[in-house]
Structure formats: C-alpha cells, structure tokens
Amino acid sequence: MGIQFDVDALWATPEAEVVALYRQVRRAHAEKKFARDTERGRLNWLRARTFAAAKGGVTERQNAVDASDDLAKKGQHVRELTLEMDLLKCDVDAIDAAMRMRGMAAPASLAEDHGADLSATDSDLG
After folding, report:
1. What single DSSP character describes residue 10?
2. What tens digit of pLDDT does each residue of 16-67 get?
3. Quick check: 58 and 104 in contact, CB under 8 A?
4. In whole angstroms, what is the distance from residue 49 CA to residue 119 CA?
5. CB count, 10 Å around CB of 95?
6. 113: which DSSP letter?
7. Angstrom distances, CA of residue 61 to CA of 55, 65, 77, 96, 121
8. CA pseudo-torsion sign 29, 76, 70, 64
9. What is the pTM assigned to this prediction?
10. Coil, helix or strand for 81?
11. DSSP classification of residue 54
12. Interatomic CA distance for residues 91 and 59, integer angstroms
C-alpha cells in the first residue's frame, strides 16, 4: 500500500515525526481520492457515451451499458481505488487518534478539513 507504521510505535515517536507522518498519510489519501474521483468521472462519461451510442429504447440502452465488460472492469478498478482510499483513511484516523491521546492537536490546516474531506461515501460506483 505504501506507507507503513506501527500504531504502538506512535506513542514513542517524537511529535515532529508524528506530524510529518500525519501529513504524509493525509497527502497519500488526497492523491488516492483524486485518482479515484478521476476514474469515477471517466467511468461515468464512458457509461453515458455507451448509452447514447446504443440503439433501441431506454431498457436496451441500459442493458448495453450493463453488459459492457470494459465498463465492468473499470467499475471494479474504481471500487479497488475506493478500498485503498478507505484504508488510508483508517491510517489517518489512527494517527489522529494517537495525536489526540498524546495531547497533541492535529495541524490546524489539516484538522479543519479532516471531517469534510474524509467522510464522503461512495454510493454511485455501480
């Protein structure tokens, strides 16, 4: 996955290193989220293009979209990116919890958008 750390070791890690790790994991999460959202946008565009290019009524067009192996593979890729992003979110939350238990506050610029940035749900992956 990339970033490896031991939650127990966070207790003994100096504050500056914990903050640096927090920033690194948050950045990895943001990059993964951008990649996932980009792929999701492409997938939606391909679905719309396939729907518009298909002949027949709405049901036949929707069946053409659903039957596309290429779109199914891309949908699976988006789901895998979402899993990776969720695992990074768990890392961010673990570091954040350790920081709070140690009496440290998350860096102000990161703490402000923590809830809004990480709490998006994925209901439209198909």
Report:
1. G
2. 898 899 999 999 999 999 999 999 999 999 999 999 999 999 999 999 999 9
3. no
4. 30
5. 24
6. T
7. 6, 6, 23, 47, 28
8. negative
9. 0.73
10. helix
11. S
12. 43
Q: What length does the chain have?
A: 126
Residues 9 and 25: beta-carbon distance below 8 Å: no
Q: Using an 8 Å Cβ cutoff, are 47 and 32 in contact?
A: no
- Give the residue extent of every domain in the chain: 8-104
| Structure tokens, 85 | 């992003």
E strand residue ranges, the chain? none
d(C-alpha 109, C-alpha 32), whole Å = 19
Would you state the structure tokens that stand for residue 89, as one six-digit string? 């979110």
If you compute the radius of gyration of the chain from its CA atoms, what whole number of angstroms results?
Answer: 20
Give the model confidence (pLDDT) of 47-58 as tens digits: 999 999 999 999
